Amino acid sequence: KRLSNLTTVLENPKIGEVTEVKGWVKNLRVQKELIFADVSDGSCGKKLQVVIPKHLTSDALSYGSSVRIVGLLSKSPRGQIELLADTVNVLGSCIVSEGYPFQPRKTHPPEYVRQYLHLRSRTNYISSILRVRNALTMHIYDFFRSRNYLNVHTPILTSNDCEGAGEVFKVQPDSDETVKAMMQEGKDRDSVYFGSNTFLTVSGQLHLEAVCRGMGNVYTLGPTFRAENSRSRLHLSEFYMLEAELAFCDRLEQLQEVIEDLFKYVFVKTRDTNEGDMWIIDKENEVPSWSDKKFITITYEEAINILMKKGLNVSDEGINKEQELAIVDHCGKVPVFVVRWPKELKSFYMKECQHDNTKVDALDLLTPVTGEVVGGSLREDDYQNLKVKIPSERLNWYLELRKYGNIPTGGFGLGLERLMQVMCNISNIKDTLPFPRWPHNCDM
Ligand code: 4AD
Ligand code: MG
């Protein structure tokens, strides 16, 4: 008896062998003497047709139930692989009338499915997305491994607000207020945990830079947190960020090259390994216009000129989401690097442009569907310059990195969920991961 997951059974069918499968019934067609069940086990987007003589079944065999089926693997007259069941065990029944929210052969709108985060991995749409996410992650690791980058796990608990945007989640109870109160009560530092404000990280960059200055090219892929009060289709409170830091990097072009290669590599690989899923996620599944085109580069100033010509007003706060998408449209929906940003719009650690200290060597990559998907820069590597800009004494360790065997570095952060959106044309970021978190939504 061959016990395999469906991917193996369907990719390498052993016709004529007794085969056991375990999975969930996705569809049932009842005929006079036979029942046809489509069974899926989550390992791929395909389903196995199981032919079941009626006398082997009970009412418990229904849409949504979990089953174990043993039978002979065969080919139907039409050439379809099917399992001729001789044993059917319903492992868990699924009683739709008790509130199961999904129905067979029906495409439920994503907003509806989102109400059932705990059950939605049973839908075709979400299960395909989760398989693509899995594959994409593997391909990202492969990309960096093949280039000899070191994978580093940066901390989630931290005392820095890397981006300085004040969007940190505080970890209680160690707020400065708590510490102060404890001190006033005459308690010593041992009675508090970290003894200073502690946050969930908004970016692993500063820690990544430390290791980069000791070991060369590094990257990390991990959870990051932003207490942004944004309920848009592009923002989450918790998301995964891929961050890379390049050693001996003194030109933005070096970063751009890695980012563009990465995009194209993971796109081709994921399409290769998960094409079926990509068709399920996006019925059009058009190969995006950019897959074989060179990405475009424009300066911030040029971006502003494009927007002004379109009659769009740009505020002091920079380019908004709608404007980002307008720029991408203007560039023929090819991803656009916007480089050389006004200093005041960007974070303290960015390096000033040579010959123009009002600008920093920063880049944002804008793409169709999401607008900004990557943010990066060269890092300020001059001790004195950084000392002036550093926002807090708590970052003295970061400053000190410039004192001992310092090197120029540059790096970037890519939102994994936004990358999923771009690659699969997923309009709402909340559908790119199993349990999205956004304001007022952390219950499940
Ligand atoms: O542009 P950001 O804020 O850059 C940084 O954090 C740098 N420290 C990264 C680095 O240089 N190592 O964020 C990087 C990317 C954004 O371009 C976006 O794709 C994603 O992270 N991102 C979010 N994704 C989902 N929800 C949010 N609230 C996000 N905020 C940023
Ligand atoms: Mg950014």
TrEMBL record:
Q: Carries keyword Transmembrane?
A: no
Q: Whose protein is this, by species?
A: Chilo suppressalis (Asiatic rice borer moth)
> Lineage of this protein's species?
Eukaryota, Metazoa, Ecdysozoa, Arthropoda, Hexapoda
The kind of enzyme this is, by top-level EC class, is ligase
The protein's name is asparagine--tRNA ligase
Q: Which PROSITE patterns match?
A: AA_TRNA_LIGASE_II
Query: Which residues are in the Aminoacyl-transfer RNA synthetases class-II family profile domain?
Result: 130-434
Domain of life per record:
Eukaryota
Which CDD domains does the record associate with it? EcAsnRS_like_N
Q: Does the keyword Protein biosynthesis apply?
A: yes
